[in-house]
Design goal:
about 230 residues; alpha+beta; two-stranded antiparallel ribbon; 5 strands; Nitrite reductase (NAD(P)H); flavoprotein; iron-sulfur; oxidoreductase
């Protein structure tokens, strides 16, 4: 794209590389690359698909501390999404569908899955569905926490530090030491990403393969009819 600008962030110690490409006037996101840490993926994807305006400092989208700065400003990526934004492409579930389900009483991820079918196919949108859920509950005056899911009383950043500091190498050890239950399609892929970022293990080795969502496990994109491309 003529005049396009690129911003990148690299952490050689953590084996993380992030890059965004924006248009010449720094108002629209054109593309992104995330290696080693992809937690911004859903926000960046929705920002590009829906043509959302970029922040005044575009590089803040991939720089450490962006989540905290967004929280301080009183908004998050999902707050800016239009109601028509597609949250679950597998089952064609929009943000409006999810917000309506929440208003009708589906106030947990499990209830939203049952009601809307969001995050019941490939599972890749589960973190984004959770973000919409928390944002909508906060809008309704309900107090919510920043726990990554019901199995870990920690945020994603806190889990990263636990893995790094305590040299935890497997999900089983992580949930045994700091969580409970068997895990879910939110914490398992997140843990897989954290473990890969910290220890550079092959993500599909037997001890890690079961943590991946189906798209990553099969290195393909699941379609509505169950086939892969």
């Amino acid at each position: 794209t003529p005049g396009a600008l690129s911003y990148f962030y690299a952490d050689e110690h953590a084996l993380v590389y992030k890059k965004i490409v924006v248009n010449a006037d720094k108002t629209k996101l054109l593309g992104a690359v995330l290696v080693g840490d992809a937690k911004e993926y859903n926000d960046l994807l929705q920002m590009m698909l829906n043509g959302l305006a970029l922040p005044e400092v575009p590089e803040s989208l991939i720089m450490p501390g962006f989540e905290q700065s967004a929280a301080k400003s009183g908004g998050s990526g999902v707050d800016l999404l239009p109601d028509s934004a597609t949250i679950c492409s597998c089952n064609n579930v929009s943000k409006a569908d999810i917000c309506q389900a929440i208003s009708d009483g589906s106030t947990s991820l499990g209830a939203l899955k049952k009601c809307t079918k969001a995050a019941t196919a490939c599972g890749g949108c589960a973190p984004l569905v959770t973000q919409v859920l928390k944002s909508e509950l906060q809008r309704q005056g309900v107090t919510v926490n920043n726990h990554i899911c019901e199995h870990f009383p920690y945020s994603r950043q806190e889990l990263y530090h636990l893995v790094r500091v305590n040299e935890i190498k497997t999900f089983d050890d992580l949930i045994h030491q700091h969580g409970h239950g068997l895990g879910c399609d939110i914490c398992k892929p997140a843990a897989a990403n954290i473990l890969a970022s910290c220890w550079n293990d092959f993500v599909l080795k037997p001890s890690h393969a079961g943590l991946q969502d189906s798209n990553d496990y099969y290195l393909g994109n699941i379609q509505k009819d169950g086939s892969y491309s």
